[in-house]
Amino acid sequence: MSAATVTVADAPKAALRHRLAERGVDRTLLLLLPGVIAMAALFCYPFIYGLGLSFQPAKGGVFGAYSAFFGDSFSEGTIWTTLGLAIPASLINVGLSVPISYRMRGDFRGKRLLLTLLVVPITLGTVLTAEGILEYFGPVGWFNLTLQKLGLVGAGHPITLVNDYWGVLFSLIISGFPFAFLLTHSYLSGIHPALEKAAATLGAGWWQRFRFVTFPLLLPGLLTTFCLTFVLAFSVFPSAIMVGDPDGRTHVISIEAYEQALQNFNYPQGCADAMIMTAAMLLVIGLVMGVRRFFYTGSTGGKG
Amino acid sequence: MTDTAQTPAKTLDAQRFNELRLQGISRAYGAHTALHPLDLTVRGGEFIALLGPSGCGKTTALNSIAGLLPLTAGSIELDGRRIDTLPPEKRGFGMVFQNYALFPHLSVRRNIAFGLRMRKVSKAETERRVSAVLDLVRLNEHAHKLPGQLSGGQQQRVAIARAIVLEPPLVLMDEPLSNLDAALRLDMRAEIRRIHQEFGLTTLYVTHDQEEALSLADRLVVLNAGRVAQVGTPSELYESPRSAYVAAFMGYRNILSLRAESVDAGAATVVGDGVKFAGTVSAAVTAGASVQVAVRPEDLKIAAGEADAAFEAVAEVVEYHGREFQVDALTRAGSRVHLRTPERVAPGDRLSLTVDPRRALVFAAENAEAGGAAEDPGEAG
């Protein structure tokens, strides 16, 4: 510092970098420019183009495509079909990840193996998962055969799980759970273990420790996790076709958009569907994030 | 201050017990023994400090007593009732953690009320007791804040309040002052002492700071590598440490490795490279044995003439401390000694040093760092 004050006389002007910093400008941020350009070209432009396109349908004026979507009960129903899959799937994923990651906080033998097993489904593609579900839960799959052997269902009357709602739900859980688990696990490990110890010395049993200390501190993280798994589940497409019933019970909104754009070649309608899908997703996330604001979201490092 | 403090002392009276008996409690992590069998009997109302450097097993001992760590061996009895088999929530001991461990999402009031809530104490009673404790720690105006909005000292007081509102038979404190700055540490030390006196809480206090331990505790337990080095009152330990290890903790900053030339009824003459002086022997030391001699910096005096000098040293670092100088000097043998003197000394000065034989404690040399183990663990009780 003292060296700097000495040289002031010789160099009346401070370095450019310092003068920029005075105004809150950091030149290294310019390195982000290529990324920003790529984002603009590959995401923003198509989005805005699609938005524009959705207001230019062949008939019905500016909002023709939107009124067509909401005027047809079959296409309008895709919103509820998709929500009916995405919300239960996200709830189950978050709900399952809480007790499992809660049990996995400490160190124990085989923890790494268990973590790997829980996370491996991420690496499986949707197609592989779908194929597995088809084989396993199909009418002559192991699951139904076992039920028949146990006499729980009559021979020749397998329960229908694939090409139906349940197959898609399974698929969403298998692919979405690892994400939910990893996020919950890291949120949990951010809660200082001394907090539960303190609660124990104050007379709280394990359920009370979870209920009054860990859970309230974890809740904001769980809501964020819910949003992320919800987004994944809401845009379900391949499994809805492969293990679902794409023309009926799992006719989700992404299939509707796909069919309009690439089978009926009605681009404006497809774009409008995609916009409605985005709006529905943002609405749910907005609601959840709004609720999150009511909870404590500060540090959980134990020092308060 | 006394007025507001006296009221809660009447309304809050800690559950008394006669004695807490720790019998051979130990804790091992695999092959590593963090705490060797520890015997200690704590009487009701006593303030005991566990003193030792980091890693000596003092926090392990505290966590084992709280029930946060299972014992490897031994038992804990409270007035004859065995409690080491109980989980922490059933023991009912209060604990103050080093990092306070306040619940960040609960207000100060709700943090303090947490334990009462877990015990299903009625609302009115909870309200009354929390208010009383808030008075005691002088945090009334902060009752509705979250812990994150408080200063370190205030958080610390909340942690103490939360532990004592349950009127626990025993309060365990794990280095509660180590995260505070020096001035605040002194204030809080007085605060803890005051709360202890008014409340009559039996306290087990873990610290690595000898000053804290000496000023707070009725009895001190000095630990060395998981073993008890000495147990006693502050004055016992301060005036007659039983080993060089304990002496080093009690302010004997100069530990010289020398040889006993002659030993005669509690007095010994010790010699080394250019060093020769008389000292006091407390434990068995035989003539000719290598010894460690402990001397406090303030007991090392600059001799009037060369004739009385025990040894010579060259001043290396001189710090001005107002009333006196703190001098680091090197002896001819190359060992470093610390002394305090009112005389002005400059670095490089050759000093003739002398020491009062009663102020130089001679101990049998310890083989290793861990050698300070209690020769007589039975005394630990």
From TrEMBL, chain A:
Protein known as: ABC transporter permease subunit
GO BP annotation list: transmembrane transport
Domain spans labelled ABC transmembrane type-1: 79-293
Transmembrane intervals: 29-48, 79-102, 114-134, 165-188, 217-237, 274-295
Membrane topology according to the record: Multi-pass membrane protein
Family: Belongs to the binding-protein-dependent transport system permease family. CysTW subfamily.
Organism annotation: Actinospica acidithermotolerans
Pfam families: BPD_transp_1 (PF00528)
Compartment(s): Cell membrane
From TrEMBL, chain B:
InterPro entries to which the protein is assigned, alphabetical: AAA+_ATPase, ABC_SmlMolc_Importer, ABC_transporter-like_ATP-bd, ABC_transporter-like_CS, Mo/tungstate-bd_C_term_dom, NA-bd_OB-fold, P-loop_NTPase, Transp-assoc_OB_typ2
One Pfam match: TOBE_2
Keyword vocabulary terms for this entry: ATP-binding, Nucleotide-binding, Transport
GO molecular function, one term: ATP binding
Stated name of the protein: ABC transporter ATP-binding protein
GO cellular component, one term: ATP-binding cassette (ABC) transporter complex
Annotated SUPFAM superfamilies: MOP-like, P-loop containing nucleoside triphosphate hydrolases
Domain of life the protein comes from: Bacteria
Gene3D superfamilies recorded: 2.40.50.100, Nucleic acid-binding proteins, P-loop containing nucleotide triphosphate hydrolases
Upper classification of the organism: Bacteria, Bacillati, Actinomycetota, Actinomycetes, Catenulisporales
